[in-house]
Amino acid sequence: MLLAQADTISATHLYICNTMVVSMTKIAFILPDNRLIKRSKEICRELNLEDQVDFYRCDIDEAITLARVLDKTESIDAIISRYGIAHVLMQENLSVPVIEIMVTGQDLAQAFFEAKIRAGTKHPRITYLAFSNMSNDIQRLSRIMGIDLEICELEAPEDITRIIDTLPKKSTDILMGGATSMAYGAKKGFVTQVVESGDCALREAFKSAQKVILAKNNERRHTEEFITLVNSVREGVIYVNRDRKIQYVNSQVENLFNIRFDEVKGLDLRKVLSDNPQFNELYTALDNCESRKESYHDILVELNSKWLAFGIEPVIVNSNVLSLVITVMDVTTIQETEIKVRNEVTKNKFYAKYRFDDLVGDSPEIKETKRLAREFAAVDTTVLITGESGTGKELFAQSIHNASARKNGPFVAINCAALPVNLLESELFGYVEGAFTGAKHKGKAGLFEMAHHGTIFLDEISEMEMYAQSRLLRVIQERQVMRLGDDKYIPVDVRIIVATNKPLAEQVNKGEFRQDLYYRLKVLTFKVPPLRNRNGDIQVLSKYFLSHYCSKHNRIRTFSKDALNLMEKYSWPGNVRELRYFIERMVIVTKQKEITAQQLMTYWDDRDFGEKTENQQIQQTPIDEAERIKQAIEKAEGNISRAARALGIDRSTIYRKLKAKSKD
Length: 664
Prior knowledge:
Rossmann fold, 5-stranded antiparallel sheet, 5-stranded parallel sheet, Sigma_54_int_dom_ATP-bd_1, 664 residues, alpha/beta, 24 strands
């Protein structure tokens, strides 16, 4: 209830009407004196604070009840009062600040001057009833003004009646103090003088209240920002002081431990969590964190059949640990987040583009291969794909992935022949910081980790060194990897598809490939047929690639019938890859709309069709691999690129094979 006329209000009436009282209140102005309230309202209008202040006239006892209600309903930001009321309210441990209207030296001098006039003597005897928070300058001012002053200090409201009742009337000329005490003194027959605060003191009180409110609002805003911040993180946050008393917990902790902050605030951490021995490592880490001023991470605790991961950060000010911030997270949540992050990071970088419908061909051979691959896609077993270089083994691997239950996971492909053995290991299995010279500062996840919940495709598996083969075998068997330089295993859920253009059985017999790994890989296996064995597919693919590259390069080209027939006769040692890029070349370099057989002969990359039988023999004769490479190089007159194209392999493969042969 807003007391616009400053009428007397009872505590009971206030409590009943508190919803009306608090709705507009910002500052509560509580005084027992109507005259001071009237002057205070004038100051409010002067300072444009009329809408921010509610005025209440009540005695000390009513003021206490009023303040408690206002504080409980959180309707005000500050209380302004004076003398005894302010002193008493300051001892109430209210959450709102109490601003005291001070008594200035000018106010005291005015009161002493009026008291001397009323006493009718130059040196009156004055008894001053003052609470202990009053200024100590009263004695000095009284001596200056020639006043015989006695100060009676009040500690509590009941002291007013006790002191006045026992004070002899003849011992004092004037009784001086606040409005409440002077009202009682007048009843007891004393000559009284109320010490009133002047306008300067009132203005200063209002300004102080505004400053306090501004600071409180800033603090409230910062607190809300802090609460919003800590509640927005996925980790649970527990803030404790040096005595391990809880100062704050966020909503995640409330949900995780089924507690409420207002119920655990100020309680010992051990009482809130548990005395379970499972938490001993956490409590030890808290002690060490404070003594060593170090952070701790990944403290695992099992609670109610679930694992929690704790971390501790010390709050250090001036080299002293003032408090500790504890973070906690359900390991299951961490794992789910890890999966989501992995998928988000890898979905644009590691994805399978091709599906079975993208595999062009109508031959019985390719149809049967696709049928078998589709069956393999339905299960999660390791797949071994064999076939000559350029037949499209990776396209089949991608199609298997996209037809499997892992289609929404990453598809990670790597050519084992394209990297040196040491680099291949670090790429596949990752490494920790300091594992080797040049390692990234925080280490790096390997491709197996990046393929988590997806598929990894290892092309040219035959080129993998024996040590890497043993590590691959462990991944297949244990479904976990260990980064280079680390001593911990990381679980991975990944399907493995491998491919080779070499007969692995022969490599096993030669001791170049692990037998146990070979048997692990060949559980499900199929061979992609070479293009020359795909009856009718050369023309189908030729027309498909012609349409594709005409669209890409904005050209109009067609094949003559004799051109298609000629391409059908060629062995295509580079298989589909060779056919594809040869047709792109023809689309670009030919000028006529129709591509004829004669033009094919002209642009056949330094080879005529008389070579096809020899090239085919180079490809098919079961002679020593090094000798076959040597023949191809001689046939190409030392041109490695031409030799590689004739063999259907990469230039890097030729260099590597020659280097290996020279070591032998």
